[in-house]
């Protein structure tokens, strides 16, 4: 497969002519190439988006809605084709890839409807000959930077509300998963979006894109999902021109199991949360707190279930856990596990890389650790791998304190049959998303965003439109004669 950039309605190579290989993490084989753009390519894309903005922003809400709905229909039609590409370059099991593409389509459908709900206000004036109106208008050109762990879903979640609001966009996907983004943009092309409204720039590494959009005054909003380090760099740079920013910068989710929880339900939920996408989700369980009275039983049940998970190439329909994104990630996960063991943790399952079915990819065995303490690196940092550290706790106050004692606050999970406790915990946890007996709280109609170092702003639902719209207040003075009539 060969990817291209999509700028001003045309598929292009990089100005430099440079290409970079895309590697399948399950086999370490090259599955495609893509052009490695420079600041000059970014400039071309921003120019196209800036030129297209006046006309696109003046289209009716219904027109924008129709474009998004056509894209939704076409993306659904191409689900299996795009899911294959996604698994080849990202590694997740094909069933998960299919689910992701369908989820990506749902964002297009939701914002096709939300485009028609950008309302204004009339406000009572303080003088008889005045009228006050408040309208909403698009912020302008939006630069979107998307990650590799959800390469389809994150593209549509970021730009569907921008397009619905009347903004034009320039997207930079991860260098590890550019081909999925190319396939998504083929959908936009087929849906007939006007030239310059949607633009795709591919760069490796991503520094050229960040530097270019920060320096360009025509870019009025940056939306980013990725590391806290890069997010803080973008926020600092955006401050020089007071650009708007939305940042989703990772998490460190506590998964809390109380003694009155249904343990079978909690175990299944833990597996779904922790081992989906090989543990490479920003909302997955990173620390598993289990009440001391049920700790041994929970551990036994979890080990029994996790032992049965099949690791392998995501294209194999029987596989439940695919590879991690690359070999460097494999080494980082191993270093976190080794550090925990060196500080007293015990490996009860996994704890090492594996090579299933003679594959030579970046596979890490689903891992369970016990005798873990909150001070260990594996609890303080986001592991982003298939490792579940189990921590025993004695009281609600203790687990709440430990759960909140990290810099991140994206997602948290609580399993209990006590209705009052569920609400107490839900309201006291310092996280933007709380799953109460629910390991998969993410839906298109609800806000997705974190507290503290997990970022700023939200995506999803009608909340996701806010950061792409400006308020404009118009004070209208009329003559006394016209008022009297």
Automatic annotation (TrEMBL):
Keyword Oxidoreductase on entry: yes
PROSITE patterns: ALDEHYDE_DEHYDR_CYS (PS00070), ALDEHYDE_DEHYDR_GLU (PS00687)
Cross-referenced SUPFAM superfamilies: ALDH-like
Keyword set, alphabetical order: Oxidoreductase
Occurrences of domain Aldehyde dehydrogenase (ranges): 11-473
InterPro entries: Ald_DH/histidinol_DH, Ald_DH_C, Ald_DH_CS_CYS, Ald_DH_CS_GLU, Ald_DH_N, Aldehyde_DH_dom, Aldehyde_DH_Superfamily
One Pfam family it belongs to: Aldedh
Active site per the UniProt annotation: 248
Family the UniProt entry places it in: Belongs to the aldehyde dehydrogenase family.
Protein name listed in UniProt: NAD-dependent succinate-semialdehyde dehydrogenase
Species, as recorded: Alicyclobacillus fastidiosus
């Amino acid at each position: 497969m060969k990817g291209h950039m999509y700028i001003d309605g045309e598929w292009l190579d990089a100005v430099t002519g440079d290409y970079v290989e895309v590697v399948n993490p399950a086999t370490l084989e090259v599955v495609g190439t893509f052009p490695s753009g420079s600041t000059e390519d970014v400039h071309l894309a921003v120019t196209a988006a800036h030129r297209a903005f006046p006309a696109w922003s003046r289209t009716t809400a219904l027109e924008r809605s129709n474009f998004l709905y056509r894209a939704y229909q076409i993306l659904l039609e191409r689900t299996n084709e795009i899911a294959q590409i996604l698994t080849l370059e990202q590694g997740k099991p094909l069933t998960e890839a299919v689910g992701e593409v369908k989820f990506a389509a749902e964002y297009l459908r939701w914002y096709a409807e939300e485009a028609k709900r950008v309302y204004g206000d009339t406000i009572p004036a303080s003088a008889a000959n005045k009228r006050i109106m408040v309208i909403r208008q698009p912020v302008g050109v939006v630069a979107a930077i998307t990650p590799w762990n959800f390469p389809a879903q994150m593209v549509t979640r970021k730009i569907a509300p921008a397009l619905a609001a009347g903004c034009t966009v320039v997207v930079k996907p991860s260098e590890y998963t550019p081909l999925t983004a190319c396939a998504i943009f083929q959908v936009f092309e087929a849906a007939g979006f006007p030239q310059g409204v949607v633009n795709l720039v591919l760069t490796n590494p991503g520094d050229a894109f960040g530097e270019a959009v920060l320096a360009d005054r025509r870019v009025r909003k940056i939306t980013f999902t990725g590391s806290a380090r890069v997010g803080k760099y973008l926020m600092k740079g955006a401050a020089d021109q007071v650009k708007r920013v939305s940042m989703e910068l990772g998490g460190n989710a506590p998964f809390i199991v109380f003694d009155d929880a249904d343990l079978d339900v909690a175990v299944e939920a833990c597996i779904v949360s922790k081992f989906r996408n090989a543990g490479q989700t920003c909302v997955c369980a990173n620390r598993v707190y289990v009440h001391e009275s049920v700790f041994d039983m929970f551990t036994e049940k979890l080990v029994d279930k996790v032992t049965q998970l099949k690791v392998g190439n995501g294209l194999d329909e029987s596989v439940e856990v695919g590879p991690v994104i690359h070999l460097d990630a494999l080494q980082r996960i191993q270093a976190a596990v080794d550090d925990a063991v060196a500080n007293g943790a015990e490996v009860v399952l996994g704890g090492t890389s594996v090579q299933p079915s003679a594959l030579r990819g970046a596979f890490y065995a689903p891992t369970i650790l016990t005798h873990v303490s909150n001070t260990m690196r594996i609890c303080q940092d986001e592991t982003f791998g298939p490792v579940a550290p189990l921590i025993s706790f004695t009281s609600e106050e203790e687990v709440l304190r430990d759960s909140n004692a990290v810099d991140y606050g994206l997602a948290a999970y609580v399993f209990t049959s006590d209705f009052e406790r569920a609400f107490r915990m839900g309201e006291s946890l310092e996280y933007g998303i709380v799953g109460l007996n629910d390991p998969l709280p993410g839906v298109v109609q609800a806000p997705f965003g974190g507290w503290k170092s997990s970022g700023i702003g939200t995506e999803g639902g009608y909340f996701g439109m806010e950061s792409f719209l400006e308020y404009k207040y118009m004070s209208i003075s009329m003559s006394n004669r016209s008022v009297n009539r």
